Amino acid sequence: MSHIAIRVENLSKQYKIAALRPHHDTLRDQLMGSLKSIFQRNGSPDQGESTIWALRDVSFEVKQGEIIGIIGRNGAGKSTLLKVLSRITEPTTGSAEIFGRVGSLLEVGTGFSRELSGRENIYLSGAILGMKKAEITRKFDEIVSFAEVERFIDTPVKHYSSGMYLRLAFAVAAHLEPEILLVDEVLAVGDASFQKKCLGKMEEVHKGGRTVFFVSHNMAAITSLCTRCLLIDGGRLVCSGSPESVIEEYLSKARTYAGIPISERKDRKGNGRVRFTNVSVLNERCEVVETVTSGQDISFSFEYESRDSETLDNAVVQIKFAGSLGQPLFACRSSASVREPLALVPGGRIVCKIPRLPLLAGVYTYTIWCTVGGIMEDFVSDVGKISVAEGDYFGTGKLPPNTLGDLLVAHTWSVE
Amino acid sequence: MEQTPESVQRILIQPSKGLFNFDLRELWQYNELLYFLVWKEVKVRYKQTIIGGAWAIIQPLLTMVIFTIIFGRLAKIPSDGMPYPVFTYTALLPWMLFAQALTRSGGSLVSNANLITKVYFPRLLVPLSAALAPIVDFIVSFLILLGMLAWYGIPPTLGILALPFFLALTLVTAISVNLWLAPINVKYRDVAHTLPFLSQIWMYASPVVYPLSMIPEKWQFLYSINPMVGVIEGFRWALLGKQSPNFMAMAISVIVVMALFLGGILYFKKMEQTFADVI
């Protein structure tokens, strides 16, 4: 069982991004742009055309029968790696060899057509994922019962509930039976029982001696499923090893990131019309603090600058907290908690007040983003960390043990 | 230890080099997917319409009626001695097949963006399936034509055996054009806006509403470079028993189409490497 299933050698992928230049969506713009650049060519490179390496010199081997988990922050290059291995996009340099029939599952419901019935979609999606017609016919009943959609099999899928749709889509993919399965975050969707089913199916695939290559943010799933884990950061393979050790490395990296001043963070996403320039945690008296206590009234202050000289209406800001295992705890999103969208004047400060901080003692990291009119403008993951010391959340001087979760909830008890 | 059994399929992923990396065998392996993609195009086309597939009959019939009134009656354009409705309908059949194949396949890569960014298969299948799907409409409207021929008492000739050739030429022409245009449309959506316009101009540059004989002799050679001229004349010859088409002109259009087709495949294969990144 030690045959090589995947061998990746010095794989790199470069993307061109037209960062500073305005959009070139139409041929005319492009032609004008080309003309201009011809006349401007005085040795200086075209400033608008910049490139990024989404993958850089990645090399590794996967043996047959392994379940490999890929972890890394958003934009680290995990999905690009999967896309290259699935042959959706070509590498810029380097090579990869895959031995065996590949099935890739980069989204649930690839090739589904909303107008077609469940039955028709099973055939269509199956064929797109690489199954033969005879094979689909053979597995048809199994797929339908796995998805639990027997009664609606001849209904157009646009009338399905989102749960049914997901189940059917995954059922088709789950019956693909490839020798090597490439999966991207599929388990992030669907309800708990469905996720359990998916995990079970992947375990089954593994028991059949097949190889699974699995990108996820779900550390629990990675730990329970994978035999080995790869950590990718900034397009490079940082380390590989047992899931526990690699996850530990990943989390300590996240904590290190949280120590870097926000102005020096280059790994952000978004268009950049708004950029966060400083983040600080304030106590009740609006003094900047490093450590807070459970139950304290605190605020987060985000200083930002804006490229526009006008006020940006319709902005949404979110701060998301993650625990010591990187697990999401809770998020404060302005569009959910306030009725009016935020209007950002050019350059200023956004303050998020959290009365009675509901966190037990520990170190937490947080991620922020800002959208304007639904378009991501700035996204900085693990932008900062906050140390919480024990505090008197309930006014009783006592707290529940922190083995039972990180969150505190205000509540009352009575006997009636 | 690193030996791998011979029976296992090996896939090598690396930056593609060379001009010609067209893998015909792989394309053939995906013939079932081509079938399913065509089947989907056909199935989805008339979903959620009241009269459904009847559109395939109404569109060419109504166009024929309008052309007969405007060009046949009002403008009194000659029709080589044929009843004008049959004359124009015979041309409309391959024309509509061509126009449908052209417009649908031109935008096909973009409308299937969700597939292209999520799963691997030979990208050629996308414009190919979009171009093949209108054949179903063609067959339906062809049956109407047979009815019309019987009504006007025009006996079929042996030339009818050549129809599959003209049919193939129509489709290959549409596909060839789109091997160029569909990849451009991935990057510049201008193509999608140009196509309906292009197909309209192209129709007036083809003998759909007027006979080839109206074109001055000295221009006919140049005119025949348009492959649809050969196709439409071929249809009229095969079905209406008109004088045999100009084989010289037809040979020219076949050569033009073949050059367009082969160049198009090279261009398409070159561009397909970046589809997923720019779509």
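qc> Residues 267-404 of chain A form a domain with the Coagulation Factor XIII; Chain A, domain 1 fold (CATH 2.70.50.60).
qc> done
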